[in-house]
Amino acid sequence: xxxxxxxxxxxxxxxxxxxxxxxxxxxxxxxxxxxxxxxxxxxxxxxxxxxxxxxxxxxxxxxxxxxxxxxxxxxxxxxxxxxxxxxxxxxxxxxxxxxxxxxxxxxxxxxxx
Length: 113
What we know:
Layout: E1 35-47, E2 52-63, E3 68-79, E4 91-97, E5 104-111
C-alpha cells in the first residue's frame, strides 16, 4: 500500500512550501516544530551528517574610535529537513525555533534563488 502524500502546513510566512514531503519531526512544514523569532538569509558553508548545516552571513559593526565599519560574520547551526535537502553553496532563508539540540535553534525554510 502506497504512503499518502502529506500536505505541507502553513507556517505563517510568505514562503513556498517544498514539493516533496518528509516525516521529519523537526521540519517546519511536515513536523511539529513551531517557527518564531528571527529570520535570516545566508549561505550554507558546511554540511554535517545528521541533518545539520552551518549557515553564515556577513554583517558590519561600527567602531566609534575610528569612525568606520568592520566586517564580521555570524555562523549558526541549522536543521536541514530532508524535504528541502540544501547543499553547500546554497543561499537559504532560516528561522528561529525552540532548541532542537544543544547548538541548533534554527531550521531551513526556503532555498533562495
